[in-house]
Amino acid sequence: MGIYSKVHLIPADLLDMGSLLEALIISKPDEVYNLAAQSFVSTAFEQPIGNAEITGLAVTKLLESIRHVNPKIKFYQASSSEMFGNSKLNIQNEKTPFAPASPYAAAKLYAHEITNTYKDAYGIFATSCILFNHESPLRGIEFVTRKITNSVAQIKLGLKKELRLGNLEAKRDWGYAPEYMEAIHKIMQLKKPDTFVISTGESHSVKEFVKLSFELIGENWKKFVKVDKKFLRPLDVNYLCGDHKKASDNLGWKPKVTFEKLVKIMIDEDVQRWEMFLEGQTFPWDAPLYPDGKNIQVKKGGKKLR
């Protein structure tokens, strides 16, 4: 990856304001990007209080830390399309009313609003960007997109026989994460903080994602996919689709990676990873845990492969 030697990692705890203050004092940043959250929505229903503290209240601690250490630091808060909930509109923009439908979404809404409060009350450059679903091969396997592509890759290579999912009809606006990070950086370079929706303007169902994934390996999804009630949420968001016109007009930003290309990128990467595993090589996603690469060992059948 080549980046580990170029960064300085500073330990901190979002629930410990003292450690956040220390991190700011050590790093002396010009910009702070808060992408941290307990972001798996299903887990938020199981751990609502912890989610509120990490996803919501911690943002206040970050903003308070900035206010005390250096109010000139620019702050970015990653807001979520989940805040819109089951919106009655076909497309959501910066003026669409919020209606959170999960503890995660409620916590994100608190974080979104407290960011605006610090901007208005203290003149801090504090900005929020409402990100619709942004995916890549780095997405955690517990999220539906990576769960699908990782399982499809295993099925292709004969390592798995079925894929169990929850709500196949839920529709999301899925974009490519690296492009969304480019938009975030552009927002932080503005002279004045503002709120933007970052999205593709297209909505696709989980079923569409599944169907396309299996088509890419030459298989019929119906042969392998089963709906399992244990993966259904107590309250689900059925449809999200974002309008990125404001970002296009003000930032010159537009999504380039199509839904079809996104799925292919993720499928290709997961297939490659499992092929590497079968050849006795290490998984790329282990790298952040062992940056020097010297201590990684993958086991297959109880035998060390490296």
Question: Spatial order of the strands in the main sheet?
Answer: 1-2-3-8
Q: Mean pLDDT, nearest integer?
A: 89
Radius of gyration: 20 Å
The stretches of 5 or more residues where confidence is low (pLDDT under 50) are 293-306
What does the model show?
The protein has helices at 17-27, 41-46, 48-69, 103-122, 144-156, 177-188, 206-215, 245-251, 259-278, and strands at 31-34, 74-80, 126-131, 134-135, 163-165, 171-172, 175-176, 196-198, 204-205, 225-227, 299-300, 303-304. The strands form five sheets. The protein has a four-stranded parallel beta sheet with strand order 1-2-3-8, sandwiched between helices. Strands 4-7 form a two-stranded parallel ribbon. It contains nine helices and twelve strands. Helices cover 40% and strands 12% of the residues. The radius of gyration is 20 Å and the shape is globular. It starts with 16 loop residues before the first helix and ends with a strand. β11 and β12 form a beta hairpin. With 306 residues, it is of the alpha/beta class.
